[in-house]
Amino acid sequence: MTKKSRSRRAGLVVLALAVGAIGLTAVGGAGASGKAGPLAGQRFYLLIQSSPTTSKILQDHAIQILKKQGVDAQIKWNPTSSNVGIAQLQGGDVDGFSNAVAGGYSAVLAGIPIVDFALVNPREDYVFITRPDVNSLSDLKGKKIGVLDTTSINYPQALIVLKKAKLDVKDVSIVVAGGQSSRLAGLIAGRLDGTMLSHAAAIQLQPQGYHVLFDFTKQAASMYDDNVFAMKSWLAGHKALAVAFNKALLQSFVWFNNPKNEDAVVQEAMALAPGSDEATTKQLFDTLRGLNWAPAKATLNIPTLKYEAALFEQVGAVHGHSDVGNWANVAYAKQAKAQLYPPKKKKHHK
Known about the structure:
Layout: H1 3-21, E1 43-48, H2 57-68, E2 72-77, H3 82-91, E3 96-100, H4 101-109, E4 114-119, E5 127-130, E6 144-147, H5 154-164, E7 173-176, H6 180-189, E8 194-197, H7 199-205, E9 211-215, H8 216-219, E10 226-231, H9 232-237, H10 239-257, H11 262-272, H12 278-290, H13 302-315, H14 331-340
Helix pairs in contact: 2-10, 7-12, 10-14, 11-12
């Protein structure tokens, strides 16, 4: 075996160990399925690039809808590098990977044949929040900014904030700090001076003197958060399931926005992320509804993906270029939308 071969093999072993060691917590299973339907018995394991948080409620509710159709549907979590999540997708351990556009696009540029086929979060639930002694964007020079990793949405978010502050990435220390719960702990402990967190964290921390210096939901409303990626080969063999998942997401948007469901949404979110504060969760969802976080008929669309991809290229969050049409397919979303919202037939006047 050559030195190069040994090195490559060692790298694969390390990646395999990383994938094997990841803490994936499953939510639900096939046992909760309802009446059998045409999708009954199929599997859809969704890996979310995050630690469990209440703001992942839209993914969770879509999974619950699939389970009622007899699908073996589960949520798993990846609070570490998105490269580990992509490896899970490639290995067939999961079927969909819910991640920021930047993470999926980076994988595409690395030559991995994945396709963006569903939109989870039409708006981001993120703010850039800093410790009490960092009062303004101009105070960020020399400070430590926490991100999940350099291929997640956090990294381009940090670059957007720095650009607004008229600073460069070299002016700060970018710290790989893990998922939201880890970044929150790091901010409170002083290991980080600023980071990207959900509005739920802002609700808790602002009364303690922490500062929200950028609100991505308000100030970057044209940016998607989680999209769902799948292997091209998986999509080719599961077209009906891909449409059904898109349809379940659209149903989740309507469910989330309906005032009659407010209590049910909170309770499902609490089950999704045990230990969350109920009052804070309710306030979070009230805030997100006010910001039109989940527009009822929002689906994946090419113009927004083009804008985001160009932005990530511009700020240096991804390296290279691939036309959006090469790695995104909106056909499943369009079909799902047509099923839920059939176009009105034109009346013919005699």
